[in-house]
Amino acid sequence: MDRVAAVDVEALEREALDAITGAADLRELDEARVRFLGRKSELKTALRNIRDRETGMTLNALRDRLEAGVEERRRELEAAERERAAAGDTFDVTLPGQAIPRGHLHLITQIRREVEDVFLGLGYEVVDGDEVEDTWHLFDALNMPPQHITRSPLHTLYLNGDVVLRTETSASQIRVMESRPPPVYVVSPGRVYRRDTADATHSSMFHQIEGLAVDRGITLADLKGTLLHVARALFGEEREARFSTDFFPFTEPSVGMAISCFRCDGSGCPTCKQTGWIELLGSGLVDPNVLANVGYDPEEVSGFAFGLGLERAAMLRHGVPDIRMFLENDLRFLRQF
Ligand code: DAH
Fold first, then answer.
1. Do residues 214 and 74 share a domain?
2. Which listed site, 29, 106, 183, 302, has its alpha carbon 20 to 30 Å from 226?
3. Is the residue at 285 inside a domain?
4. pLDDT value, residue 3
5. Whose CA is nearest to atom 8 of ligand 1?
């Protein structure tokens, strides 16, 4: 008959619990578990050879205590592990941050906002217009007869019947006047479209800002004072303005505005083509026919209007040689402004 291996329960328990609670990490804990509770451990061997009930109960109780000890130590070690990992995630808030490259507004947007700000300062309102217009608002109401050259499909992009992409922001004048009685003081910026072949000074899409003032007693003096103020805000306080006759169907008289050259101050340079003057915008007193077309009484009110090309203003001010550069999205160009 086999002799049951005599197990010193107390000594074994002390030794095992020392190893278990002393395990510094999960690997050491597993080693202790294998050594004291594994298949070849002294305890398991003794359990296999049990001959009497009392020894069995004693050894089973010991096994339960050791297993509980292993579980408890495992929880402790895992909690410590989590804490260490979390501690590793902390960072030094005094370290320099990662710079996130930041863009800025496109030059055309900047100039648009500048012009808007000047007019907001004069008490004008900024209104949106539609890029898709009908021929009444874009042509007829603006006093352009049916045979006017701009109305040709060679110049204007027709979408469908009398639906067109606007060739100028002037249609906004009609929209605003149709929607409210005078007085009117508005500017209306936006994109315009023309059936042009692109070159250094032409693009099939560009931006204008339209201006319109209608009130009792508006005269050319108001036009001149207002536009000189804008020109000086954009091109420097020393600018002088020169007004000359021009023609637009919707103004009478029509007035072209030139400013003294901001490069050479008028003495003559390539920017002003040696003339000392730079053509800046078209303007005029609103034609009485236009006022009548929107139901205003030309005997009661008068007005002035103007249209400024934003790309043209930007090209002049910054010496940009080609209008297509505004659309190419070349950061080497855009970052300069
Ligand atoms: N619409 C004109 C153009 O595109 C610019 C213009 C001229 C607008 C005179 C006006 C104006 O309001 O009065 O060339």
1. no
2. 106
3. yes
4. 41
5. 307
Strands 158-160 and 184-193, bridge-based pairing: unpaired
Res 5: pLDDT: 53
Cα 80 to Cα 92: distance, rounded to the nearest angstrom: 22
Residue from 172, 283, 302 whose mutation best tests the ligand 1 pocket (most atoms within 8 A of CB): 283
CATH of the domain at 255: 3.30.930.10
282 CA to middle of ligand 1, Å?
5
| Single pTM value for the model | 0.72
**Closest to 46 (Cα-Cα) out of 66, 31, 29, 28:** 66
Residue pLDDT, tens place only, 203-225: 999 999 999 999 999 999 999 99
- 192 and 228 in a single domain? The answer is yes
**Separation between Cα atoms, residue 13 and residue 76, nearest integer Å:** 20
Characterize the bridge pairing of strands 205-215 and 302-309. antiparallel
Domain encompassing residue 132: 107-334
